[in-house]
Fold:
Amino acid sequence: MVLKDEGMAELLPSCNTVVLDEAHQLPETASDFFGETVSTGQVLDLCRDTLAEAAVSARDVRELPERVRALDKAARDLRLAVPRKETRIPAAALEEDGEFAPAVERLAHAVAALRSGLAALAERSEGLAHCARRAGEMAERLARWRDAHDAGVIRWVEVFTQSAALRMTPLSIAAPFRRQLDGPPRAWIFTSATLAVRGDFGHYRDALGLDDADVACWASPFDYGANALVYLPPALPLPNSAEHTDAVVDAAVPVLAASRGRAFLLFTSLRAMRQAHVRLAGQLRAAGLDLPLLLQGEGSRSELLARFRRLGNGVLVASASFWEGVDVRGEALSVVVIDKLPFAPPDDPVLAARLEHLRRAGRNPFVEYQLPHAAIALKQGAGRLIRDEHDRGVLVLCDPRLLSKGYGRQLLDSLPPMPRTRSIADVAAFFAGATQRESPPPQCAARRRGAHTGGER
Structure:
């Protein structure tokens, strides 16, 4: 869609029907592609390519390498003008600093100077012409980024170890996405196992401008009532307390003893993941449990999953990378532990801007945005557990707000209809093959008979 809007050829052939699977990812993906970015990495790539082309086709033009060096320095100075740690920051917060805005201005001037120099040389070679086009596009994106102060876009900066990126994201993608739907007549089908929240598609339809969409949900083919159990450990501290991560590990160890490993421990932050890994190694030794312990980052995701499947009794400690798109079928994965409700960090500049926009419109950003997104993320994490009709397992949810807050009950009810317990003895009985477990709550039983759980479409 973006390529076509930019006047390039269509990447996909003409068709009468478009089917988008895993469509819950679409709003975030579309936000990235309908936005714009100028990064110091892009600038340095342009500098290197220009010097290479100049060495072949413009060796007699001394001004060109000088302009490249000036642009290289401007890009590196911009990186030095932002915080050194990796983070995401609203542009307005950085522009209050005396160094950032002048650094952006110097970068814009340096890009414009290189653009001018390349334009005069573009006829010498195809390579120089291509660099001239890139410099022109970069200058235009920088100008839009500097001048965009309307309510329809979010200006922010992403900082990496060696680079920085100036990003501009649409506040809503409903309008640009709607333009695609209103193009040539065709059918659009959006499907995902986690598209609705308790059968409601309202938040998704709002995000993509799908006001006139037909919606439907179908029950999962999996028998969650017989093959799964939700364990809510008692007496856990609040998730924002310093003791919470250690308490999650301590609550998980008896479960791991009953299941003989075969578990994912999923955390909502890398810091909690690392802390839990250290704690868990000590607790497993103290309990005399000889279980292979894997940590996200020790290898690629595919390598770790291959090791996990091969071991058969492994315990993998991970974070967001393993919350979705991971498929481990059979007995190798029989426990999924989730440390806390997966609310997006409120300091994210794009999220903060969207919440503020809803607030100013008199709407409830928590109910209309944060809660549905947390429900979908929780269902994605829980979905790692039961992958086919024969899988059995225990989902361990370690956030006490699930029972103490009204919205926690809503999130629980958005999960597949699994029996719930607060007793570790029930967990042990489940893995021992016992059937004496808590019956599903009435609303869960009703949902299993109804049409909107599990594999929602």
The radius of gyration is 26 Å. Confidence is low (pLDDT under 50) at residues 434-457. The chain has two domains: 31-170, 224-449.
